[in-house]
Amino acid sequence: MDILKRIDTKKLPWHVAIIMDGNGRWARKQGHDRAFGHHKGVDAVRTVAEAAAEIGIRYLTLYTFSTENWNRPQEEVEALMHLFVETIEKEIPTLNKNNIRLNAIGDIGGLPQVNKTKLLSTMEKTAHNQRMVLTLALNYSGRWEIIEAMKKIVHDQQLGKIDVEKLNCETVSKYMNTAQIPDPELLIRTSGEQRISNFLLWQIAYSELYFSPKLWPDFGKQDFYEAILEYQKRERRFGLTREQLKFGEQE
Asked: I need a surface site. Which of 64, 75, 168, 224 has the fewest CB within 10 A?
């Protein structure tokens, strides 16, 4: 049976986040340097973004470059920054064809100026698209994001805009980079590694986790759809018992 026919489009996650891991290992297996793996990783991004849009995913967030990635060898960082500039404008026609709006989270101001300029330009040129929001986490760290939110909360408290005694999860979420995006229901990580790596630490409190053994350049539409099918098999209880959920459905 065609895997697409097995997906219940009425039970899709609104937001899927992906830790795209394995570009370097994939390249080494092919006898190439890590930069080659990153180039192939871009192809996987295009494939998965189109797959997500085609079935009706509304938000897709990709862990593109972490704050820790600056510690990688300089030649690899430079290759990644060059690849970003080379790719971002070239993808505008594809994004517009698929009605996908580009968004970004992270310390964008800390990117090289040429990268920042290209990113903001592409975001502006796709701002009218409404089918799906593709968010790139760039120069991003979950801990950094939480600290930045705390700074903003303290600042607003000092100005008398908020009462910290009345802080709740909903209020704190409004100070996160993802304030305009729902929390991801599904987090996918490729390459067989099973860790979060400082990604969306606040937002994934109740996300379903899916770990694929595939290295990111090998992760295609079929693999993405299999992750969606696995998500749809799971029972999301949010701390409740199965009996409580069934009772709620009967009401």
From this structure: 168
Per DSSP, helices labelled H in the chain are 23-29, 34-55, 74-88, 92-97, 113-125, 142-158, 169-173, 221-233, 242-250
Tokens, residue 214: 């595939």
CA dist 251 and 2 (Å) reads 35
Output the CA torsion 200→204→205→209 (10° steps): -130
Write down the residue that tokens 């305009």 correspond to: 180
CATH T-level assignment (fold) for domain 10-140+183-250:
Undecaprenyl pyrophosphate synthetase (3.40.1180)
Cβ pair 16, 57 in contact under 8 A: yes
CB atoms within 10 A of CB 238: 8
Tokens representing 47? Answer: 């494939």
Q: Where exactly are the structural domains of the chain? A: 10-140+183-250
Q: What is the pLDDT of residues 132-148, one digit of tens each?
A: 999 999 999 999 999 99
Question: What is the rounded CA–CA span in Å between residue 72 and residue 160?
Answer: 42
Q: Is 19 helix (H, G, I), strand (E, B) or coil?
A: strand
- Does the pLDDT value for residue 88 go beyond 70? yes
Q: Where are the alpha helices (DSSP H) in 159-208?
A: 169-173
As beta bridge partners, residue 64 has none
pLDDT tens digit sequence for 18-62: 999 999 999 999 999 998 999 999 999 999 999 999 999 999 999
Residues involved in catalysis: 21, 69
